[in-house]
Design goal:
Length: 176
């Protein structure tokens, strides 16, 4: 369900406050909702996620992540925040842990679990979409558990197609 390369949006329409903390990875283009909001207290925006994975004598190596969290939508009536612009992953194609190689994570265009993931709230993207239709079709939230979009006739409208749906994807104008 990954986003295609064509994207047109303003950086002011991207929210970088929320992280994804679940056990599985998350594809770009996933529609997400807020599961835990931004905490406005004296503890700050980050929290410890525990040890980075190794324990060495006389060292402290903790991993930190955002306190605010998002999860994929699960029903077409959820209040969606937007779509993820980057993939969330812990390992590369060889099974190597990306937390020990942040440069490779950046080269792959992924963020680690717990790190702030950019969420697009408004813009034009080329993305996978369920259903069929011509340009101008309403795009709605899907009941799929993977946080997808559809052209079905029921659900919350979040945008419209700017192209026909070809091979399961279309250029979509979104506004959450």
């Amino acid at each position: 369900m990954a986003l295609k390369t064509f994207r047109q949006y303003d950086e002011h329409d991207v929210v970088n406050l929320f992280g994804y903390h679940a056990a599985d990875s998350l594809d770009s283009g996933t529609v997400v909702k807020i599961s835990e909001g931004v905490a406005l207290d004296s503890n700050g925006p980050t929290e410890s996620m525990g040890s980075v994975g190794n324990a060495y004598t006389n060292t402290v190596s903790l991993r930190y992540g955002t306190r605010a969290k998002v999860v994929p939508i699960t029903t077409k009536t959820d209040v969606a925040l937007g779509i993820t612009l980057m993939k969330v992953a812990e390992v590369d194609e060889n099974g190597e842990l990306l937390k020990f190689n942040p440069r490779k994570a950046a080269e792959m265009g992924v963020v680690l679990k717990g790190q702030a993931i950019p969420v697009l709230t408004k813009g034009v993207v080329h993305m996978p979409i369920a259903g069929s239709g011509a340009a101008g079709s309403a795009v709605r939230l899907s009941d799929s558990v993977d946080g997808g979009l559809t052209t079905a006739s029921d659900g919350t409208i979040v945008g419209k197609t700017l192209s026909a749906i070809v091979d399961g994807s279309a250029i979509v104008q979104l506004s959450f």
